[in-house]
Amino acid sequence: MYAAQQKEVAPWLQPLWEGLDFAKFPNAILLHGQSGIGKFAFSLELARALLCESAQVSSRPCKQCEACHWFDTGNHPDFIALVPETHRKLLPQAEYESDDSPKKVKPTREDSDAETSDKKEKKNISIEETRSAIESLSIGSHRGGNRVILIYPLELLRPDAANTLLKSLEEPPSNTIFILLADRVDRVLPTIRSRCRLLTAPRPDRSQGLTWLHAQLSKVRGLKVSDADVDAIYDEQGGAPYSVLNSLIARHNKDEKDELSISIQASRYLLQSMSQGVRINWLDAAEKTHKAQYAYLLAAMQRWVSDLQSVNQGGQPRYYPKHLVTLNSLSQVAKTPKLHQFWKSLILARRHENHPLANRIQLEALLSQYQQVFEA
């Protein structure tokens, strides 16, 4: 994905970068913020800087030394990335097919059975991967400098794997730095949060985010998309430039299996259905969208209902301004108490979005409740 190739720190994250003290860096940081705003690209640049062997600390990463070169080719021996299969393509040219790769962990029968019974398990980091990584920390670093272990997304770490990580954070190995990333910091164990320096990644303001996004899209050869379409998708995705960039590139490359692209298309169909109000065919909507990421669909529903509540109270839509007429029409027939209750249902659903339940059944229940918001 493009985000892994982006070497520069995003402009809205530059102040965060400038506030880092590489001479006195903590053993563990927890970088958290909205998904799709560049946290992963930031963390890779940070890992590169921490492993850089340049004599000038202030100019790291130098991108010229042997350590920087190894990092860029995905072969640095002191960099460990714990990410699920669904996120491995974000890493810089990493090769996971080699049997002797230190970052590859052979799945246990338990893991294999879990993945066979539920493909969602591939979004988690297994306990075996975590244990293997933690055990390797007992050995000195290969190049005598820092060793960096990056974990993303931290909130999807299984409880047993999280406990294994916690033990290492309580007694961190020398010269080992943990870079932990979370989209939802409220889902990270408080005991882990308390042992890290928390860094909040800000979301760019709309003008800054769109300026950056259009600049990146102009570098993609052959990609044709109107500014109006880009702006609309940007708003729909909650102002997450990297998510929009990666989804548009996947669409341009006709990557029909790209999970983010699938989710965006599904969320658009879902919103078209929700715009029908009481006439929504909730069975059809659930049938045609349930294969997308459930968390992504819930987020889209939350943004739509947030705008609907805002218009219902005389305000303006934040995420879907181009649908103001539809939102106005729906707000006039929506039953306010039922709308508020549906909002609470969405919040509750977000708390359990990673539970291995049937997405289709959950969507049907929510969309059926949404229809009732407009019934007389």
Shape: globular
Name the CATH superfamily classification of the largest domain: P-loop containing nucleotide triphosphate hydrolases
The average pLDDT value, as a whole number, equals 83
What is the second-level CATH architecture of the largest domain? Answer: 3-Layer(aba) Sandwich
Q: Compute the separation of the termini in Å.
A: 47 Å
Number of helices: 17
Assembly form of the protein: single chain
Proportion of strand residues: 5-15%
How many domains is the backbone divided into?
A: 3
Helix percentage range: 40-55%
Instruction: Kindly name the structural category.
Output: alpha/beta
CATH class category of the largest domain: Alpha Beta
Residue windows where pLDDT falls under 50 for at least 5 positions: 1-7, 94-121
Keywords, please?
single chain, 376 residues, alpha/beta, Rossmann fold, 3 domains, five-stranded parallel β-sheet, 17 helices, globular, disordered N terminus
Task: Give a short overview.
This protein folds into 3 domains: 2-200, P-loop containing nucleotide triphosphate hydrolases (Rossmann fold); 205-255; 275-376, no CATH class.
